[in-house]
Specification:
Layout lengths: L41 H25 L5 H21 L4 H39 L3 H4 L17 H31 L3 H14 L3 H19 L6 H25 L3 H9 L4 H12 L1 H16 L3 H6 L18 H9 L4 H29 L8 H35 L6
Helix pairs in contact: 1-2, 2-3, 3-14, 5-8, 5-11, 6-8, 7-8, 8-11, 9-10, 11-14, 13-14
Length: 423
């Protein structure tokens, strides 16, 4: 039997799906229509522009005309508040209440993010603008301040001694902070004892420790004791220990949070294969959270590299090169910035802002190096690691093939060895 094809619709035969008694998509209420999921809607752009113009006009009328107020900060705050109100009102004309709240929350989040980004750009731009007169000279990066005074031109003197002092102090502080902080974080994440809870409480309390307290602690513990014994004085080592005290709770807290994010199924799988606990931590937990642990070290470095008061108390100040961290004063870039910007001389102030700009560049360089070394997430292999993994897989495949061939030879030789069929 031949199946009949359905009749084709022609202009003389109207489509039954477009009957007058059936509501079409275009006839639905606006709230029931499917909302397009494009990134930017035209009505959103018009609402943003209209709210911005209305808010700025109303704020100028109220702030400068109707009320005797002045100041740019107050005008910007009033403009932002009026912008949110105008934007919510304009959106409510074309969208239901849930969309109004969603767009209003998005506007608040984006405006706050823009404010923080603008503040960061303003700080960086102001620092480089005030220090560009010193940064343009090569001697600023290749000499110290031992042979130049406040009245000398910017073609003399530099901050190389402060750059080296900062690197030495941070390296010593990281040598103490990274192993101790990571081991403590692993202990806190793997242990559920009362001692672990006590350590976590102490670490949380140390997070808010003022830097001057850390400086006084190291001053009383190391510097004063060395002076009493006659074996030392203020040094870069003491300053690095004070910086380590400030960095340690940040690294521990951040690393503890990252280690707690490792899925428990990975640990259970490794334990089910017979791996001891230390091997599970070393081969499963640490590689999985490597990127997060790098971020924890970066946060601790950012906390310690800008410290000034602990360095002033424990390392002193010098204008000459000091490469021995165990004896004699040593200076850092934040302390150099603090000392030079207090001077009334314009050249010294320019040198101070130049030192601050160099500190920003140095921090950026350290962050790039840290991200390059440990920024890959779990499962993301470099080219070298990929080639090594492929080579090991090829070796395993060859070993398995040789084992299969040996087993086949043994099985083929078995009937000849036992002709009666007994095994």
């Amino acid at each position: 039997m031949t199946a009949l094809a359905p009749p084709r619709l022609t202009e003389a035969q109207p489509d039954d799906t477009k009957r007058p008694d059936v509501p079409q998509a275009d006839d639905r209420p606006r709230s029931d229509r499917r909302r397009a999921l494009r990134a930017v809607q035209p009505d959103e752009v018009m609402a943003l522009v209209g709210a911005g113009l209305a808010a700025s006009s109303l704020a100028y009328l109220v702030y400068y005309v109707l009320l005797p107020w002045s100041g740019l900060l107050g005008f910007l705050v009033l403009t932002w508040v009026l912008f949110l109100g105008c934007y919510a009102l304009l959106v409510s004309f074309t969208a239901p209440g849930i969309h109004v709240r969603d767009r209003l929350a998005g506007a608040v989040a984006h405006s706050l993010a823009f404010t923080m980004f603008s503040a960061l750009v303003l700080v960086v731009a102001f620092t480089f603008k005030r220090g560009v007169s010193a940064l343009r000279h090569l001697n600023f990066f290749t000499s110290d301040l031992s042979g130049s005074g406040p009245l000398d031109p910017l073609t003399q003197g530099g901050v190389l001694h402060a750059m080296l002092g900062t690197l030495i102090m941070m390296m010593l502080a990281l040598l103490v902070t990274v192993p101790l902080g990571l081991v403590t974080a692993i202990y806190l994440s793997e242990s559920r004892t009362r001692l672990a809870r006590l350590v976590r409480t102490v670490v949380e309390a140390m997070t808010a420790l003022p830097s001057i307290i850390a400086g006084l602690f190291i001053l009383a513990l190391i510097v004063t004791l060395q002076d009493a014994l006659g074996v030392g004085q203020k040094s870069g080592l003491a300053a690095s220990m004070a910086i380590a005290v400030m960095m340690l709770p940040i690294v521990i807290r951040a690393a503890d949070v990252v280690l707690r994010l490792v899925p428990g199924t990975l640990k259970e799988a490794a334990a089910a294969l017979g791996a001891p606990r230390w091997r599970v931590v070393w081969h499963v937990v640490m590689p999985t959270s490597r990127s997060g642990l790098t971020t924890a070290v970066i946060l601790g470095t950012a906390r310690g590299i800008g410290e000034t008061s602990p360095v002033l108390l424990t390392a002193g100040y010098t204008t000459a090169f000091a490469l021995n961290p165990f004896s004699g004063p040593m200076v850092s870039l934040p302390l150099t910035t603090f000392i030079l910007t207090r001077s009334p001389e314009p050249n010294q102030i320019a040198r101070g802002f130049g030192a601050a700009a160099v500190l920003m560049l140095l921090v950026l360089l350290l962050f790039i190096v840290a991200r390059t070394l440990g920024g890959r997430g779990p499962g993301q292999l470099s080219r070298r690691q990929t080639r090594r993994t492929s080579a090991l897989s090829a070796q395993d495949a060859a070993r398995f093939a040789a084992s299969d061939a040996s087993d086949s030879q043994l099985l083929s030789a078995a009937p000849a060895a036992y002709p009666d069929g007994h095994t």
